[in-house]
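User: Could you check the structure of this?
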Amino acid sequence: MYLIPFLLLTSLLPLTITAETVLGIYILSRHGDRSSKSTPPTNLTTLGYSQVFTSGSYFRSRYVSSSASSPILGISHDLVNFKQIAASAPLDTVLMPSAQGFLQGLYPPVGNQLGVQTLRNKTEVQTPLDGYQLIPVQTVTTGTASEDSAWLQGAGNCANAITSSNEYLSTPEYQDLLNSTSDFYKSLAPVVNATFGEDFLSYKNAYAIYDLINVATIHNASIPFSSLLTPSTLSQLSSLANTHELSLAYNNSDPVRAIAGSTLAAQVVQALNTTLTASSHAPKINIQFGAYGSFQSFFGLANLTSLPAITNTDTDGTDFTAIPDYASTMTFELVTNASVPSPSTFPAPEDISVRFLFHNGTTSNSSHPVAYPLFGQPALELPWTDFVKGMNAFAVGDQSDWCQACGNSTGVCASVAPQGSLCPGGSNDGGRGISKAVAGVIGAMVTLAVILGVEALVFLGAGLRLIRKNRLASSGNNNGAVTETDKAS
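Assistant: Sure, the predicted structure tokens are below.
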């Protein structure tokens, strides 16, 4: 690992770069607090709603408001401009409401003055709920009701990823933990026997057991045999669940296991590149809501899991080998220190950089995101071309590439003929695409954006699917398409 300790320590400080211009952002957010997966239907709780709203409010204060600390160039401060924002989430009772709650914080009600429309006959119509703003969330059909499932890879449909995750169950590491923790899990029977039978209590079901008990410790006024849930026991439950889920989401020698992170990487590059190449007509803010599996897969692929765990009051602690807390966010900032003459005229690609930030848990004005280095190198800001090259090393954003990586040959994969990758992925792609000059990269990405906007190309696998956005009458909103990565969360 090449990380310089001093550099990492300084990254914990709030970022205040006065000469910098933020051109656009991409946010992946986990949902807020929810009920247990083991007692479906799983629902977003009032606490979870508050968490995502608080996070949305923070990102407003950072990027959107007229007094924002790092305002996005040309962003509409109060009245949402549908051309400038793209949000997406699977349709279920946790992720979709989380998206709506976050957006309420990002663009809150505008009051009696801004929230009024004057008709031709001079009648004034006041927006309900004090100027409440209705922001469309694009629905991702794959992953519907995924929050009722505890199986990490179940919603992905990627055959090789499912097989790879299952292979963890036959490794010596898994068998050792299964055997060494047997008595520990059996000792929890009095606490969970109303939900789980004794045969269920083993490391094999580490996450489901942890999830049930974790939810109970947050919400239940009384827990059977609560004296068994000592701080040491709760810590061990969490640690075992972290190990179990990371092992299912990522394996250094078998990249397909992290297909969720690979599709996310392609999605991020595509979205930021569209912001760059179609600045005045593309979203400046891209937000998607997904599952912890997507976080963990990306953390492994981007070499973030090699960073040391950090305990810090400003970040609530960060450990990239652990399951991210509710309402966690990772953000990709597209930034430049060059002069920007107008919101529609961006600097040359060589003058643009990307910064990665992560916050574990609810983000607020007292608990900020922190910048971390990607790909095992020390820099907190990467030149655009280096960032795209690093992401391309594991990105999978083309249907034929996905079908090949996943080993799928039925459904849409049955009719996919081998062809050039639109967003090459994997280290075995023969150096396609991004290893060329930056002009070629950007040109290819522009072509991708056009294709995505015209053809209803369906991305399957790892929960990646393309959805068209219906034209909003008289809203000025552009037609477009986004993809979504979803796993059980």
